[in-house]
Fold:
Amino acid sequence: MSVFAGKHILLGVTGSIAAYKAADLASKLTQQAALVDVILTSAGESFVTPLTFQSVTGRRAYTEKDLWGSEAHVLHVGLGRSADMLVIAPCTADTIAKLANGIADNLLTVTALAAQCPLLLAPAMDGGMFDHPATQANLAKLKERGALIVGPAEGHLASGLSGKGRMVEPTEIIGHIRLLFGRSGKLAGKKIVVTAGGTQEPLDPVRVLTNHSSGKQGYALAEAALASGADVALVSAPTALDAPVGARLVCVQSAEQMLNAVLTELADADVLVMAAAAADFRPKNAAKDKMKKRDGIPQIELEAAPDILKTVAGRRSKMKRLKVVAGFAAESRDLLENASEKLKSKHLDLIAANDISATDAGFAVDTNRVTLLFADGTNEALPLMSKSEVAERIIEHISKLLE
Ligand code: CTP
Structure:
C-alpha cells in the first residue's frame, strides 16, 4: 500500500504566484490516496480559488472567513490535530516570519500553532527576500524546531529577476513527504541497491547497442524502498527519469560498469533488486573512432556481457550483510517455466516474472502484470497494476523476507 494512502495532509497555500503549482501538488497527493485539506490565506486566495483545490481534492478547502465562522472554535484545533503532516507550499517570507515567532493571526498560522505533526515548508519569494538576514534567521529558528525546509530553487522569478526564490516543483515536495512518512518504515536502517534502465554497450564513440527499458519499474522500486525508510542506492543506466528524492544515484552506461557499481554498493547492503535490463551481449571490439560509411557496412562481432546476478551469486558467501536478492524475468513465452529456471540458476530469493509480449505490461508503459516466484517454491500472481503498486508489493515481500 502507498505510504500516502489514508494520510491526512494539511496543505497551507500562501500568497505567491507559485500557488498555482500547489493545485498540482494537491492533485498529485490525492491521486496517491492522501486526504488533502487545504487552507488558503487571504493572499493565497488572491492567486487561486478554494474551488480549484476542492475540485482536485474532493474535500473542502478552508479560507480566512472560516476562522470567523460558526465552527471556528474547533476548526483550527481539529485540522491541526488530525493532520499527519502540515505542508505549506508556497510559503512566503511573511508566513515564515509568523511561524518562527509564533504569531497566530490567520487560520493557517493559528492552525500551525495547534498542529503537533511534522512541518514541511517550501519557501517562495522574490529576489533578495530569501537571502535577507531576517528570513534566514527565521528559517534557522524553524529548522532548529524540526521543520523541514525544501528549497527554494534558483531560476527565473516572477518579477523578471533571476535568483534563489522559486518554489521547488511538486514532485520534489512529494519526494520529501515520502521520506518523512517513510522514516520509521520497515526498512529503516537497511540499505537496498536497486538497478534500473537498459544498459548501453558502445559500438563506437557515437553508437550503442541497447534495449527498450524505460527504467520506470526500477525507479518505482527505489521510491517504494524510500517510502519504507531504506537507504537507497539507485544504480541506473541512462533514462529520461529524475531520481527520487533521497535516493543516491549512481550513473552507469554498460553492463560492465553496472556490475562494478553493484559490487561496490553491495559491500554494506542488505538487499539487491536487479530491475535493470542489463545487456547479455556486447560488441567485442568497440571502435575508437566513429565508424564511417565510406568504409562499408561493418561486421559487428558480439561477446557475452557479464551476468550481474550470476556474479553476485558466486560471491554471496563473502557478502555478510546481503540477505535478499531479487530479479526480474522478462519473457515473451513460457513465462513461469523460464522465470523459475532463472530463480534457481541465479540463486534468487524472489523473481518477478514479466510477460513482455502484453501491451499493457513490461517496457515503457506505466502498468505491469507480474507473477512473483519465491525460492521456497510458492508464487503469487498479481493482477494488472501500476508499476508503483507492483514496486510496493515487491518491497513488502522483501521486508517479510528480511524479518
Ligand atoms: N541480468 C543480469 N545481468 C545481465 C542480464 C540480466 O544480472 N547481464 C538480470 C536482470 O536484471 C534480471 C535477471 O537477470 O533481474 C533476468 O534477466 P532476463 O533478461 O530476463 O534474463 P537473462 O538472464 O538475460 O536471460 P535471457 O535473456 O536468455 O532470457
Summary: DSSP finds 13 helices and 22 strands in the chain. The chain has two domains: 8-180, 186-402. The pocket of cytidine-5'-triphosphate is lined by residues 255, 274, 276, 278-280, 305, 307-309, 327-330, 342 (CB under 6 Å).
